[in-house]
Design brief:
Helix content: 40-55%
Strand order of the largest sheet: 1-2
Shape: elongated
Number of strands: 4
Number of helices: 6
Structural class: mainly alpha
Strand content: 5-15%
Order of helices and strands: HHHEEHHEEH
């Protein structure tokens, strides 16, 4: 009995699809993007396991997001004081730098999308947050040279502007994000 080439192509495609769908994300080759890994972390870059912070992330949520980074650092010989996020005393900076070079691109949480340099609207977001802060009475506030970060206090290091800005920053970010 002779089988047509179309049937063979369909059979091969079905077997390949079944093999791909049965593989677990952990069984995949590290650094190779799969449909499952992309679906599991839509906000992370391909091959990355980086979570993304949100504007309303709590400190507990950020601590939980940092755990894979700390684990990676420890696995590469650099130990981090998890309570402070500081490198522990007595470690070689070359060991810390080498571990960070491996771990940061894979596990360090990404900033909220509104503050991400990869977001083409991040500079507009920062400008609107500055305008909101000025509207709340913060006298010395501006975006930094990168256009995304916000500096409080100005060259005078005005403590009132710093205090007001720190108190109102989250509310302004939320307000600007909600206005989108």
């Amino acid at each position: 009995m002779r089988i047509g080439s179309g049937v063979v192509v369909v059979a091969v495609t079905m077997v390949a699809a079944a093999a791909c769908s049965s593989a677990s994300p952990r069984a995949a080759t590290p650094g190779v993007a799969t449909l499952q890994s992309a679906a599991a972390a839509p906000s992370a870059s391909a091959g990355s396991q980086r979570p993304r912070e949100r504007l309303d992330s709590t400190s507990e949520e950020i601590d939980a997001m940092m755990q894979p980074y700390y684990t990676c650092m420890a696995a590469h010989g650099a130990h981090v004081d998890k309570a402070k996020g500081d490198k522990e005393q007595g470690q070689s900076t070359s060991v810390i730098d080498a571990a960070n070079k491996i771990c940061e691109p894979q596990y360090m949480p990404l900033p909220p999308w509104e503050k991400d340099p990869a977001n083409p609207e991040a500079k507009d977001f920062a400008r609107k947050v500055v305008a909101c802060l000025k509207g709340k009475g913060v006298k010395y506030v501006e975006t930094t040279a990168d256009g995304i970060s916000i500096a409080l206090g100005g060259p005078q290091n005005d403590s009132r502007s710093i205090t007001l800005g720190m108190n109102d920053m989250s509310a302004c970010e939320q307000q600007v994000a909600a206005a989108k």
